[in-house]
Amino acid sequence: MSQPTRSVVIVGGGTAGWITAGRIAAKHRSHAEDGLRVTLIESPTIGTVGVGEGTWPTMRSTLKKIGISESDFIRECDATFKQGAKFARWVTGRDEDFYYHPLVLPQGFQTVNLPAYWQERREQQSFSAAVCHQEHICEHGLAPKQITTPEYGAVANYAYHLNAGKFAEFLKRYCVEKLGVNLLLDDVIAVNAKENGDIASVATAKNGDVGGDLFIDCTGFSSLLLGKHLGVPFIDKSDVLFIDNALAVQVPYDHEDAPIACNTISTGQDAGWIWDIGLQHRRGVGYVYSSHHTSHEQAEQTLRNYVGPAIDALSPRKIPIRSGHRQLFWKNNCVAVGLSAGFLEPLEASAIVLVELSAEMIAEQLPPCREVMDVMAKRFNETFLYRWDRIIDFLKLHYMLSQRTDNDFWEDNRRPQSIPESLRELIALWRYRPPGNHDFTSNNEVFPAASYQYILYGMGFKTDTRYLAHTLVEQDLAEEQFSRNARAIRQALATLPKHRDLLKKVHLYGFQAL
Amino acid sequence: MGRLVALDSRTHRSLRVAPEKVVAQGAKLNMVPVVLSEFLKLCVQYPIVLTKNADTGRFVCVCLFGLSKNENLFWRDERWDAIYTPLHIARQPFFAGAGEAGKAGQADGEFVLCIDAENDSLRQDTGDRIFDEQGNETPYLQQAKAILSALLTGETETQRFIDKLLAVNLVQPMRLDVQYANRQSLRVEGIFTVDEERMKALPPEGLVELHSLNYLAPIYTMMASLGHIYSLVNRKNALLAG
User: Fold this and answer.
1) What average pLDDT does the segment A218-226 reach?
2) Is A394:A237 a contact under the CB 8 Å cutoff?
3) A74 lies in some domain
4) ipTM exceeding 0.85, yes/no
5) Whole-number Å distance between alpha carbons of B139 and B122
């Protein structure tokens, strides 16, 4: 007889636990009598890591599917708009060195591949400025939409920066009050197994054994169910990504009307890089570095130099980072989401998007009964092993293209042995032709070809198109895209409001649903 | 709006308002906010739709005079070529100012009748008098006050009406691609209207609720008025033909 999936137990709150709970409960109608039962066990004693404050544009559809109003989210989570990232001092390390990885696709991306045509004018205009309007919008401190734009609608594609602590609390309230998620404030003290190795229940300190058909491990770095109980090993990736520490600090604004950056600012340093994100009421700043290439004291000094005198009143928090992921993410009737599945450094904000993608796949493809769960586990593992590998490749790309020579950190990052073969192969291809959609053919891609183009050509990579010159006959079409983009820039600069002004209006009036 | 001052029977005793200059101020408006109580008069000639206030993003009910910016197709040969002039136009140059607490005879939150002292329609020689020789209100002023009061109560009522339409999901964006006789084409954006399909699909209790609020008539009036978008196109074509 088949054993239907009637109840899901999520161990651990935080961003991962509550996003997963929200997606599953909304899709499987947990508020209804006949819906799936979702229980989340949140420890009253263990805190969250809570520095994951950058999202991808996917967060818009995640929130929408959970049923949350964008205005409420922005008001309650200190959230701001994020239009990609500005990378400063990553290429040469000089003061004037910067490029953008925007979220808007190049103009006419599905019609004509622009890099070859842009290379002829590369001295006049950066790649991102030539092909999309977002760099200009960001440099002018403008928001990606107007107050008349509907909720989740965009003039220029956008994601968010948010306060992770407030976000988890906000999701928790919504999940419990609106979606019928059952919250147990309790500590898991043991895991009870069945004969076939499945988890039968988790033993809690106050509520006894809590049983379920599917267990979701959102216990953070401790990976209590998947790592500790089921013994799935951790695959270390520190031979590719060298960052192993973060020093994080929350910096107040000089005054309450100070402008808010509308993109992540990532500034290369001697042994890593500093993130700088603007929330409504403070900035989040942190130095991620390789302790093999600098000392903790030197790292703290680097952060001080970046933040300035304001840091004297603040106490930076040190967080160790171990880049890597579990060998499997789903085993038996247990799947890990969030830090329990793995973590890479914060470059390109891959942490929360992996949570969303995991929650999406679990919610949309929840195995209806135990009999098909192993098939689902296999598919889930294949999908996410592929995704982690693609993210690792993409992060490594940023480091290997740098021309910095001021520290071994950068030299070591260019050593071929430290670069995954899959990335080395793509780079070899791209020396003779630009990246295109044909390079990324899986249904499970995380970064589109456009993102590779922005990083490559933003970082001064040159594609030698000499042998393909006979195919470059779409000059007129390319020119049309460049002039369309110039028009889009003028239009955007004339109509988009300042970032903080729009946020104020969201507080006063909110966005309309349509 | 220029400079608002409280209307005073001594200061403004000899002041006159030139009616043709009142409507002239709408010459470059392509829409004005409207209130429920004038829907039946509006729908004879103007399309009544919803749009968003550019400053707040909130929905407002408006009637359209033209489809392009600054285009009023009802302003022809220096006169308002229509049967009915919307209250928002006819109210000029009078405004309701928020009352100042503490002033003799005024409660907090009460409105004070104000006049735009820089308004184009103000005259000393010709036009309608606001006060008579003795300083009493003229019938003209009494009518102006009635218009203002209709606007004030109407704004709240109309806002409630819009909120209800939104709450029951009856508002939809309207796609409007227009081609004029000279082949010039235009995409009109930012216009919303009542979703006819959703209206038809409304369950009986939903209909009863709208009926008990007296919203059915304005809803159907709005829908019927949409045909006047074609009248606007015709006016424009006539204009283009010279």
Assistant:
1) 96
2) no
3) no
4) no
5) 17
Interface test with B, best of A70, A71, A148 (most B CBs within 10 A): A148
Q: Which amino acid is at A464?
A: D
Query: The tokens of B130 are what?
Result: 């606001």
Backbone angles phi, psi at B80, to 5 degrees: -85, 110
Phi-psi map region of B17: left, alpha, beta (phi>0 left; psi -120 to 50 alpha): beta
Give residue ranges of A with CB < 8 Å to any B CB: 146-149, 505, 508-514
In a domain, A266, yes or no: no
CA A239 – CA A473 distance, rounded (Å) = 43
What is the per-residue pLDDT for A482?
Answer: 96
pLDDT-derived band at A65 (thresholds 50, 70, 90) equals very high
List chain B residues with CB under 8 Å of A514.
171-173, 192
Tokens of B204: 């009986």
- Domain contains A13: yes
State residue B99's pLDDT score.
Answer: 58
For A55-89, what is the HEC assignment? CCCHHHHHHHHHCCCHHHHHHHCCCEEECCEEEEC
| C-alpha of A133 from chain center | 22
Q: Tell me, yes or no, whether A177 lies in a domain.
A: yes
| pTM, to two decimals | 0.91
Mean pLDDT over A57-75 rounds to 98
Query: What residue ranges do the domains of chain B occupy?
Result: 26-91+137-241
Reduce the DSSP state of residue A374 to 3 states and report it. Answer: helix
Instruction: Decide if A82 is catalytic.
Output: yes
Domain that holds residue A191: 7-53+163-236+323-389
